[in-house]
Amino acid sequence: MLQLMLHAHPDIAIPPETRFLLETYDRREQFGDLRERRNRRRLAKFVTRRRGKLDDLGLDRAVVRRHIVRGPATTVGDATRAVFQAYSERFDARRWGDKRPAYIQRLDVVLRLFPDAQIIHIIRDGRDCVSSLTRMPWWTGGAIAAIWTWRNAVNCGLRARRRLPADAYTEVRYEDLIAAPEAELRRLCAFLGEAFHDGMLEPHQVADVAVPARKVWHTRTRAAVDDSALHRWRDDLQPWERDLFHLVARRQLRATGYTPQPPNRLPPIPVLVRYVRYHGYREAYLRHRKVRDRVRQWRYRRPVAAERAVGAGDGMHSHDRPSGALR
Description:
This protein is mainly alpha-helical. It has 16 helices and five strands. The protein has a three-stranded parallel β-sheet, sandwiched between helices. A two-stranded parallel sheet has the order 1-2.
């Protein structure tokens, strides 16, 4: 929903989830020195591969490849920015952004690629998130994985809230956006340094061009904003799911302005064991990824950041300043 609200702004273009930014960064060693044309060609082929999601953006692969290979792209940030710029040009927008839930867990990477990015973290009641995720056809982790994922995302957001400056990071609650969309959108526009536009209040008007038809789980984005998805967890979650959530995520609920409920009872022992095991597995993976990324940074000494473009006002051309919409 927030993606469409921002996309409805005449100067901002936010595509459907692209899923190539982090993957390209993680594989940057494979492409070598991007000052060499042949290496840019290899990177361009990876970004525009058939298994990617470029088709959702309505961009011609050959045109995007040429833009990366022939353009001034000498870093991974420059090369990936070329795709988003091509998308924004479809809509004559000055600015672009990207939306992906995984970004909140890897803001360090996003900011390495785009040091001047502005991050919008959209937060939803975690109980409704669990209810929604477990009904998605592509979600295979079940309720335990969904609970851990929301809890971890909020923890990442809390760290960003403490560490990033006010002009680089902000948050918006899904429920507040539903209850007072104009007030919240005006606040977000002020954060971005953009004027508010009434069209942002009718995001369903741009759903046909910004939401792929194959994503049937986003059907509600084609209708006007309403509150029908709020508090569904009260009917949808099983008792053990509610009890487990309130046991392990009470602090995160409070920190994001939600009211936790005391568990009616402790979840069954097998459920607790499964959660503890999953938590241990995921924490070990995150530690491994952190070490691996540090090793890659040590081995790959070349710059990765997109070049900042000097302009008037905020010190750069607004066309080159991303605004990330993150769930």
